[in-house]
């Protein structure tokens, strides 16, 4: 089981935190400040029977200037070069225009896209299903994983599922 997996999502949803947890060391740079990740950062997850190269991306949002534009291109250009895409959204924020923009880009992706709902430690369990349904209406996801990148909930399940499909 091996392949490339891109992690995509708005700034501050927890992409780098997730990647650091998976890789077990501080490779990507985490910060509460948006766009700390200026370019693509790869990390290799290796187990006895699997090797996944994770591609952390700068947060994607509607470009306002040339630097935004550059960073968006860096993130979006990975989508058709990888074997699977993790689209990460924060459970504690209402879905907005930023995610809508990313979803419109995902429409062109032929590889499996998984919805990763991060920060579930910050919400009431009852709020999860309506939240997921909202995103499900916008894209036919290959799978949905509610996780907490900081607490670790469900991260192992996501990894073993993802690995088994690569
Ligand atoms: P990125 O811009 O998508 O790479 O986001 P970061 O990984 O830099 O995380 C942005 C902020 O969200 C940081 O302050 C993280 O500590 C926080 N964060 C990330 N994942 C979680 C989570 O599962 N739960 C909570 N409560 N905070 C999180
Ligand atoms: Mg980051």
UniProtKB/TrEMBL annotation:
Residues 9-16 are annotated as: G1. GTP binds at residues 9-16, 56-60, 118-121. Residues 1-166 form the Era-type G domain. GO terms for molecular function: GTP binding; GTPase activity; ribosomal small subunit binding; small ribosomal subunit rRNA binding. Residues 118-121 are annotated as: G4. Residues 35-39 are annotated as: G2. Keywords: Cell membrane, Cytoplasm, GTP-binding, Membrane, Nucleotide-binding, Ribosome biogenesis, RNA-binding, rRNA-binding. One of its GO terms (cellular component) is cytosol. It comes from the Bacteria. One of its GO terms (biological process) is ribosomal small subunit assembly. It is found in: Cytoplasm; Cell membrane. Signal peptide: none annotated. Residues 56-59 are annotated as: G3. Residues 147-149 are annotated as: G5. It is a peripheral membrane protein. The keyword GTP-binding applies. Monomer. Belongs to the TRAFAC class TrmE-Era-EngA-EngB-Septin-like GTPase superfamily. Era GTPase family. An essential GTPase that binds both GDP and GTP, with rapid nucleotide exchange. Plays a role in 16S rRNA processing and 30S ribosomal subunit biogenesis and possibly also in cell cycle regulation and energy metabolism. This is GTPase Era. It comes from Lacticaseibacillus manihotivorans DSM 13343 = JCM 12514.
């Amino acid at each position: 089981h091996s392949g490339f997996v891109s992690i995509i999502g708005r700034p501050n949803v927890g992409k780098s935190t997730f990647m650091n947890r998976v890789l077990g060391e501080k490779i990507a740079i985490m910060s509460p400040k948006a766009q700390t990740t200026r370019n693509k950062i790869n990390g290799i997850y290796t187990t006895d029977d699997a090797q996944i190269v994770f591609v952390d991306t700068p947060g994607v949002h509607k470009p306002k200037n040339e630097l935004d534009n550059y960073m968006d291109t860096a993130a979006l250009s990975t989508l058709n070069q990888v074997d699977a895409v993790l689209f990460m959204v924060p459970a504690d924020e209402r879905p907005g225009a930023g995610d809508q923009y990313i979803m419109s880009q995902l429409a062109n992706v032929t590889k499996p896209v998984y919805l990763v709902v991060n920060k579930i430690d910050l919400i009431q369990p009852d709020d999860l299903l309506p939240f997921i349904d909202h995103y499900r209406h916008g894209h036919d996801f290959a799978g949905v994983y509610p996780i907490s990148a900081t607490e670790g909930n469900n991260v192992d399940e996501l990894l073993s599922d993802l690995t088994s499909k690569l």
